[in-house]
Specification:
The complex is a heterodimer of chains A (about 325) and B (about 270). Chain A folds into 2 domains: about 50 residues, no CATH class; about 230 residues, Orthogonal Bundle (MetI-like fold), CATH 1.10.3720.10. In chain A, strands 1-2 form a two-stranded antiparallel sheet. By secondary structure, chain A is mostly helical. Chain A is built from 14 helices and 2 strands. Chain A is globular and about 75 Å long. The termini of chain A are far apart. By secondary structure, chain B is an all-alpha fold. Chain B has a domain of about 150 residues: Orthogonal Bundle (MetI-like fold), CATH 1.10.3720. Chain B contains 14 helices and no strands. In chain B, helix 2 packs across helix 13, helix 3 packs across helix 7 and helix 10 runs antiparallel to helix 13. The two termini of chain B are about 45 Å apart. Classes of the chains: A mainly alpha (about 325), B mainly alpha (about 270). Chains A and B meet through helix 2, helix 4, helix 5, helix 6 and helix 8 of A and helix 1, helix 3, helix 4, helix 5 and helix 8 of B.
């Protein structure tokens, strides 16, 4: 069959060569087939097909090894919704995602505005702020875990300098999640800054010149011109940040293992445990689909809100 | 004049304190990794005064880090090469070749970027398992051998190239593969660099997939190895920080080399790999 396609492609190509190249139409199909085959195979097998396969799996009870899969309908979903541990992980994930998104957005915007001018060391600052973004999450988690050490960690030692006795951070159920939010924010700010900086450079100077003529002060300019003009960028950053944060796994795995007392047990980690430790593949697939739904709904909501907000501004 | 000076000082003050927070973990990591035993908790915390390099030698030999490093290098290079070549091929077809359903296919490919990784994780694991690819390089590489994001990057780039380049060659009877490899690819070094840096950083930093598809210590990647090392030797701060430095260094070097391309990739597409 491969040979057949190959010959057909050759034949078509030879005919094509005699014609003016602008009118090609269908005859490029076989060539395109070979150009696209590897991509379609890989994305099909490991992205597209799995999306449906895991939906199908979520209706079964299966450990992944035994030949026996039991169809149980929506039972995985109903038992999911009845499990307090699952709702805890949803709550933890929402707090993490919300915290990182808001904090990194505000700081990223602040840094971008400060850097959006002729200033010495501009690229130096930009590189430094961006380093956490490209740092492997596992290594970052390891280092921060020790920075948060209750007695000898840098964070508490710095706090002690200003007379504050810091909490036990990762060892304290009421501080552990905040600690992870801090690391997530630290890793995200640089990305937001770079995107905001690019957006700020696209703002026409005349807006600012007009505002200056009207005698507007810096805060007014920021609030009335910069922020509204950046709305599409902000929306984009919120959505990508939420989607990324909903899937957080590495940080939790390395820093807390979901503890203490499940206070950092994000959905990604909850899913991992059920899939690869307890071998409940059907149940874990239901979790994955629930997460997908959450991401989908929030994305839609964001677009809706964004449209509403835009209307109010104008 | 004085107010202007003050403002400048204030801005630099703010930026510097932010930069300190961004850089502090790195400074502390490197400083700690170079401290001799017994001095771990001693000041200074952010400036290396000691240079006790044997921590690196020790960390390197405590766990099979050379092997982890090799595994990660093979995986990252494999993924970078395949993502770049295969995504470029697909991007070219989507930008230049005419066939029915081209736009639908392009949107389907873009659509795969919207699928959260946890959704594909379990089925991908089952597929790799049934292929007998657990604990193999192909298990680490093949499922990520193509990137929808890279396809998008390449397609946009090829659309911006003038068609005349290819049309002359077509009239001369060159086929599409010749055109692609002889004319198009040599012109594509900017987008190749952008795609390659994204692929490399993604692969080097990746954790969950290697964690799931490798079982034996022999096949662990460096990120998984570091997480394991932390569990076993967590009490040796200096060694752990030396290991972390070894893990972070390639990512930072790659980024510094290709920083401009990387930042361009983010800002022109507004997306990340």
């Amino acid at each position: 069959m491969v040979l057949g396609v190959n010959l057909r492609w050759k034949a078509l190509h030879e005919r094509g060569a005699c014609r003016p190249p602008l009118r090609r139409g269908l005859q490029e199909f076989p060539v395109a087939f070979w150009f696209l085959l590897p991509a379609i195979l890989v994305l099909g097998t490991f992205n597209f097909y799995p999306a449906f396969y895991s939906l199908w799996l979520s209706f079964f009870e299966w450990d992944g090894f035994s030949p026996q899969r039991t169809f149980i309908g929506v039972e995985n979903y109903t038992s999911l919704l009845k499990t307090g541990e699952f709702w805890n992980s949803v709550r933890v994930t929402l707090i993490y995602a919300g915290g990182v998104t808001v904090a990194a957005l505000l700081i990223g915007l602040g840094v971008a505005v400060l850097l959006n001018r002729q200033i010495t060391g501009r690229s130096f600052y930009r590189t430094l702020y961006f380093l956490p973004v490209i740092t492997p999450t596992v290594a970052a988690g390891v280092v921060w875990k020790y920075l948060f050490d209750p007695t000898q960690g840098v964070v508490n030692r710095l706090l002690a300098l200003i007379g504050v006795s810091g909490p036990a951070w990762l060892n304290d159920p009421s501080w552990a999640l905040l600690s992870i939010v801090i690391v997530g924010t630290w890793k995200r700010v640089g990305f937001n800054m770079v995107v905001y900086l690019a957006a700020l450079q696209g703002v026409p100077r005349m807006y600012y010149e007009a505002a200056a003529l009207d005698g507007a002060n810096a805060w007014d300019v920021f609030r009335r011109i910069t922020v509204p003009l950046l709305t599409p960028t902000t929306l984009f950053l919120i959505i990508t940040s939420l989607i990324e944060a909903f899937q957080v796994f590495d940080l939790v795995y390395v820093m807390t293992g979901g503890g203490p007392l499940r206070s950092t047990d994000v959905v990604g980690y909850y899913l991992y445990r059920h899939a690869f430790r307890y071998h409940q593949l059907g149940y874990a697939s239901a979790i994955a689909y629930f997460m997908f739904l959450l991401i989908f709904v929030i994305t839609l909501l964001q677009f809706q809100l964004g449209r509403g907000g835009g209307a109010v501004e104008s | 004049m004085k107010a202007k000076h003050f403002k400048k000082l204030l801005i630099h003050g703010l930026l510097l304190s932010g930069a300190f927070i961004a850089a502090m973990p790195f400074l502390w990591m490197i400083t700690t990794s170079l401290k001799p035993p017994g001095k771990v908790y001693d000041a200074p915390l952010f400036v290396p005064l000691y240079f006790y390099w044997s921590n690196y030698v020790k960390a390197w030999s405590f766990a099979p880090f050379p092997r982890f490093f090799l595994n990660s290098a093979i995986m990252a290079i494999g993924i970078t090469l395949s993502q770049t070549l295969l995504s470029a091929l697909a991007g070219y077809a989507l930008a230049r070749l005419k066939f029915p359903g081209r736009n639908t296919l392009f949107f389907l490919i873009l659509g795969t970027m919207m699928i959260p990784f946890p959704i594909t994780l379990i089925p991908s694991f089952l597929i790799v398992n049934s292929l007998g690819w657990i604990d193999t390089y192909q298990g680490l590489i093949v499922p990520r051998a193509v990137s929808a994001f890279a396809i998008f990057l390449f397609r946009q780039f090829f659309l911006s190239l003038p068609r005349e380049l290819e049309e002359a060659a077509l009239i001369d009877g060159a086929n599409r593969f010749t055109i692609f490899f002889r004319i198009i690819l040599p012109l594509s070094s900017p987008v190749i660099a952008t795609s390659a840096i994204f692929s490399f950083l993604f692969a080097w930093n990746d954790f969950l997939w290697p964690l799931v598809v490798t079982n034996s210590t022999r096949m662990r990647t460096i990120q998984v190895g570091l997480a394991m090392f932390q569990g076993q030797y967590g009490i040796f701060w200096t060694l752990l920080m030396a290991a972390s430095t070894i893990v972070i260094a390639p990512a930072i070097i790659a980024f510094l080399v290709a920083q401009r391309r990387f930042v361009e990739g983010i800002t022109t597409t507004g997306l990340r790999g």
